[in-house]
Design a protein that fits this description.
Blueprint (H helix, E strand, L loop, with lengths): L8 E5 L5 H9 L4 E5 L2 H9 L5 E8 L3 E2 L3 H7 L3 E9 L3 E4 L10 E4 L1 H6 L1 H7 L2 E4 L3 H11 L4 E5 L1 H7 L2 E5 L8 E8 L11 E9 L5 H11 L4 E8 L7 E8 L5 H12 L1 E11 L3 H4 L1
Parallel strand pairs: 1-2, 1-3, 7-8, 7-9
Antiparallel strand pairs: 3-4, 3-11, 5-11, 6-9, 6-10, 12-14, 12-15, 13-14
Helix pairs in contact: 6-7, 8-9
Length: 283
């Protein structure tokens, strides 16, 4: 991936061997990946300068949007400077000496277990929910029981000394997680390249404000590729919107569309203008 930065450190949520860790390695192979227990901790590490950038999952092709991220993004004080689409390729991992016949239980995150129902059914083994995929691999390695296996990444196998009993065990090939790269500094991509602009906004409390605010994108030929809303107050009456559009803020058409959105909104904040990943065209 062609990035504008070459960070020395990258924060991710999870334990070593997680798919987020794998994404860090693929995008920034020369950087040190720093594990954080929570998404809050990962954002804070970037904000305080403990690490250079953060690798944050935002949505999965099967599981949908990642919980909490859209609440954390607007208040983080950080900017999106890039995106990465990570292929999720599950492996059945077990300690040395274990076989498909010896395994009785398999541990992983509930989504990973759900994505590998066919092999679990085929082997007739018990599925046990764990906090995350890499954490499950770590625990299976520590117990070193040939009756136990984990569903996790190839990187988890490398970290914890587990052997793959089977590879690509997901029911549906093509499972993909989209990540955004977060930075303290805003770094807009060059205006002559395909770009994605991310923003958050709240519309004014008048009839059809959202419809009219978004109308500027239609009249200016700007494609809105994502629009999500979530409640921001205890009364359940105030909604904030997260949107992604195709185009660069330096484009005249994008600028006009954003001006119209601002007219019907109380707040509009750009979270980043970054290169559109080739996966969008080829995926």
């Amino acid at each position: 991936m062609n990035m504008q930065v070459s960070p020395k450190t990258v924060a991710f949520q999870g334990v070593p061997g997680a798919y987020s860790n794998l994404a860090c390695r693929e995008v920034f192979p020369d950087a040190e990946a720093v594990a954080c227990k929570t998404f809050d901790a990962a954002f804070e590490a970037v904000k305080t300068g403990t690490v250079d950038v953060g690798m944050i999952p935002i949505e999965n092709s099967l599981g949908g949007r990642v919980a909490d991220i859209h609440h954390l993004l607007p208040n983080s004080g950080l900017y999106i400077i890039g995106e990465h689409f990570q292929s999720v390729q599950h492996m059945l991992l077990a300690p040395e000496g274990a076989t498909l016949e010896s395994v009785k239980r398999v541990y992983s995150h509930e989504q990973a277990l759900a994505q590998c129902r066919d092999i679990i059914r085929e082997l007739g083994i018990e599925a046990v929910v764990a906090a995350d995929t890499a954490g499950a691999a770590q625990e299976v390695a520590e117990r070193n029981n040939p009756e136990e296996a984990a569903i996790a990444s190839s990187l988890a196998a490398e970290f914890y000394g587990l052997k793959p009993l089977r590879s690509r065990i997901e029911d549906r090939i093509g499972n993909t997680t989209r990540f955004v790269i977060m930075s303290r500094q805003r770094m807009d991509s060059p205006p002559d390249e395909p770009a994605i602009t991310s923003l958050v906004f709240q519309v004014r409390s008048v009839p059809a404000a959202l419809y009219k605010g978004l109308g500027g994108f239609a009249t200016n030929g700007i494609n809105v590729v994502k629009l999500e809303s979530y409640i921001t107050d205890m009364s359940f009456t105030v909604a904030q919107f997260y949107a992604e559009i195709e185009g660069h803020v330096s484009d005249v058409a994008v600028a006009r569309a954003l001006d119209e959105l601002r007219y019907y909104s109380t707040t509009v904040r750009e979270l980043g203008v970054y290169r559109a990943h080739p996966f969008r065209k080829n995926g």
